[in-house]
Amino acid sequence: MTYNELFTEALRLFDEGNLPAAEDRLRQITEASPDNPDVLNMLGLIAQGKGLHEEACSYFAAAVRNGKENAGYYYNLAFSQKALQKYNEALRNYTKVLSLAPDVRETYDEIAQIYENLGDLATARNYWDRAISLAPDYAEAMINRANSYRFDNVEYAFEQLTDLAEKYPNNVLVWYDLCWIAYNKQDYESAFQYIEKAEKISSDYDSIQLIKGLIYEAKGQINEARAAFAQAESLNGNNLQAKFHLANILSRQEDYNEAEIRYKKLAEITPNEFAIHNNYAEMMYRQKRLAEALEEYRKAVIINPQSAEVCNNIGLILKDMGEYEEALGLFFNALKLDETQTAISLNISECLILLSRNDEKKALDIANNWVKSYPDSLFARHIQATMKGDNLVDNKVYTEKLFDNFADNYELVMQNLEYTTPLAIRRIIGNYQGRIVDLGCGSGLVGEALKALSNYIIGVDISSQMLKKAKAKQVYQELIKSDICDFLRLRSDYDIIIAADVLVYFGDLAEFINLCRGKRLIFSLEIDNDIPQYQVQKNGRFKHNSDYINKMLHDNGFSCITMHDEILRYENGSAVNGIIFEAF
């Protein structure tokens, strides 16, 4: 086959999408003519089609060197440089294209997109205007220009794109851009409607399947998200975002072997991608592979030393290893980087409690310094008070933040502590037929234990995240976000009040018991009869004197009181003894 025949055949195969066969024909030509610019350009386009833009740039640059000045070669080179975010180089080559072919509208659109990426929206819009002046019906330029307003006037962007969708209803890009605006506004239903319209026009875009996956993921439809990401990957094997999100889903679904293969492959392709190392490390941490997770987190922190998340996560590993002082150093560094993250303050509090078991003075000194550095931190002041043994007033904000952050791991932690209070309450209450209020319902463990066809259960909790977990169990007829005393002041349409493992966060129970008058009351407490009334412990929970509780119940009209001795849970291998009070 002659050179011309091979090249013609390669062009035909390329147009049909058969890139491997086209590449084979082109390489046959390069054996005899390695510097042919048309062949080098075609090889660059094939590499570009595979997403291998570094390789594509080398071919296009060679075509530019070996051929006459050709606007197409410069355009293709600039396109791959833009994909690699080499914006200055891309601009130089697009400018060269304009000098050779000033009437190519796509060049102005590409230059505009670069300036948009650089944050120079005024210049970007100027180039889109020039593209539109060359071709007044250039839909893509009009859509890109309208979409650029998402940065400085998102409502205007939405309005303009909606108008363009009416004018160009068969344009994929306009529906795709509308989808992203809706997705970023967390309007997932509208986002899905827009992307379905884009998909009906053209179903073979991997970017469409990627955003579908993100929408499904945001809606909690994880299996559907997994399928969409897999479809995006099948359409474009070089779609790294699809691969990354698939790895994350596999990790969350505990398909650890497959997830690990994917994380490792991604790290080979993009070794300096922070999120890959961070998420891979997180997976290993959940598998209790602490040393390996620590190594991977350290790779992540080299890439982004300003990440509060990584500092916090390394601290968690060191805490689990018993290296409390080193862990605290990392937690405080994370707090310095991001003071808004409640979880960091809670980790400091927990680590100080653990340290205090070995060295009370050192833990208190660190707590004092924390208060000195962050005098407005309710977490710092709370842990300082507990370590000093000061009785605290009810801190609703602290409790809400504590359990919002505890929600995801709550049931696993309680399982590890052999928490049996819900089952003990079930034994006491039996198969009750009536209306029950579960105060401090948390993730719904008591509701699960008590649910029967003949009862009506109201769950009350101060933590919105806990209530989400409880809602998923579908055992409550009502779920209400409220402080428990605030709820008792407003509602009385129930027969039994249950407070399991919630009053340990209160010292003085006078107001609570008074608000429960006239109802059957069941609640659990940790007991220490060597204290006068109640005393906060170093873990921030209160212990109460059972005589104090009995007296208060009698004073508020409860005449029939039963105390059920129970082991409420196990902590550090030791039983935590308590009483479940039942009062009428």
Give the arrangement of secondary structure elements:
Elements: H1 3-15, H2 19-32, H3 37-49, H4 53-66, H5 71-83, H6 87-100, H7 105-117, H8 121-134, H9 139-147, H10 154-167, H11 172-184, H12 188-201, H13 206-218, H14 222-235, H15 240-252, H16 256-269, H17 274-286, H18 290-303, H19 308-320, H20 324-337, H21 342-358, H22 360-373, H23 378-388, H24 396-406, H25 410-416, H26 421-429, E1 435-439, H27 445-450, E2 456-461, H28 464-473, E3 478-481, H29 484-490, E4 496-499, H30 510-515, E5 520-526, E6 534-536, E7 542-544, H31 546-555, E8 561-571, E9 574-583
Parallel strand pairs: 1-2, 1-4, 2-3, 4-5
Antiparallel strand pairs: 5-9, 6-7, 8-9
For the terminal residues, how far apart are their CA atoms?
A: 99 Å
Backbone structural class: alpha/beta
Our count of helices gives 31
Report strand %.
Answer: 5-15%
User: Largest sheet, order of strands side by side?
Assistant: 3-2-1-4-5-9-8
What overall geometry do the principal axes of the alpha carbons give? elongated
Radius of gyration: 32 Å
Structural features, described:
With 584 residues, the protein is α/β, with parallel strands linked by helices. It is 64% helix and 9% strand. It is built from 31 helices and 9 strands. The protein has helices at residues 3-15, 19-32, 37-49, 53-66, 71-83, 87-100, 105-117, 121-134, 139-147, 154-167, 172-184, 188-201, 206-218, 222-235, 240-252, 256-269, 274-286, 290-303, 308-320, 324-337, 342-358, 360-373, 378-388, 396-406, 410-416, 421-429, 445-450, 464-473, 484-490, 510-515, 546-555, and strands spanning 435-439, 456-461, 478-481, 496-499, 520-526, 534-536, 542-544, 561-571, 574-583. It has a 7-stranded mixed beta sheet with strand order 3-2-1-4-5-9-8. Strands 6-7 form a two-stranded antiparallel ribbon. A hairpin with a 5-residue loop joins strand 6 and strand 7 (542-544). The longest helix is centred in the middle third of the chain and has 17 residues, at 342-358.
